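Handout for the seminar on molecular recognition.
Each group receives one record of this type.
Step one: identify the two inputs.
Step two: read the structure output and locate the region that could contact copper (II) ion.
Step three: write two sentences on what you found, then compare them with the reference statements printed after the record.
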Amino acid sequence: MRHFVVVGILVIAMAVLTYIGLDSAGLMPVQASAQSVPIDRMWNEQVIAMSFLFALIVVPMVYSLVVFRRKKGDTTDAQHIEGNTNLEITWTILPLFAVVAFAYLGGNSLAQTLRADPEATVIKVTGRQWSWSFEYPEYGVTSPELRVPVGKQLHLQMTSTDVIHSFWVPEFRVKQDLVPGRVTEMRITPTMEGSWKVRCAEICGASHYAMETPVIVMSQAEFDAWMAEQVALAAEAAATPEGRGQALVNASGCTACHAINGVGGNVGPTWNGVFGHEVELADGSVVLADEAYLAESIKAPQAKIVAGYETQLMPAYGFTDEQIADIVAFIKTLR
Ligand SMILES: [Cu+2]
């Protein structure tokens, strides 16, 4: 009996210490959304259960090793034990209750993170290899970074143009896949101003690691000012071919692979200075990068492969000839 009391006290002490240790390790980034509250509560409950189970296993084991060691010179057999029905019933029933309780808590937290606000702002999210774009249908604006006002629920309607991606901002906790041919939804209510990053959380190809873009939560006034600027820029851009081309480039994620003025990926060649210059192709020939060549490169990317980029694949886009002409007009402006 004395052993049970001592072990019981040690288990509780060890559980408390383990919990305090894990809790102060700062495993979580800041809590920046309303949806993170039920998730963090659930996490905390699991950490408590984990700490207790850890203590329940480790303490009796170490205690037995130390206290019930074989005495020097004792060569007798150990006591034979046949099993214990009460113990078996207990350790079946208690975990069963624990699992059912966690299933209930989990269902509850899930329902809270999915709760829809009818006033939510709709944002259409597109993921592609390897970039994001965010369309604000209310304003007719598309942005390569996600800027949102604090305190309002966002209703993200997400899809992918190629493979499965996954939208994940650790500070918001929730995560959702983007599936080609389907629209998946997610609700996020940012509760804190700040600047974070959305990362793709589904391995989606060679540059998966680079598929991230800023997420900026600002005050309503700052957001309104930014949006007014975007609306004005979009109207201005729509009036010229190179402006329309630039908007298409921004909305299509070309800069995931092509750097413009030093900003962007290096999977494909930079566009600066390409127009009017000679391009060496993989087959050893040389072509002049005129309008026709650039248009063909976009329309039929595999028709002429630039030397040095044989192993990289430029995707095909379903652009119209006018759209391609606009993009070429934009590339021509890049000296
Ligand atoms: Cu991805």
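Reference statements: The chain has a mean pLDDT of 91. The pocket of copper (II) ion is lined by residues 127, 165, 200, 202, 204, 208, 211 (CB under 6 Å).
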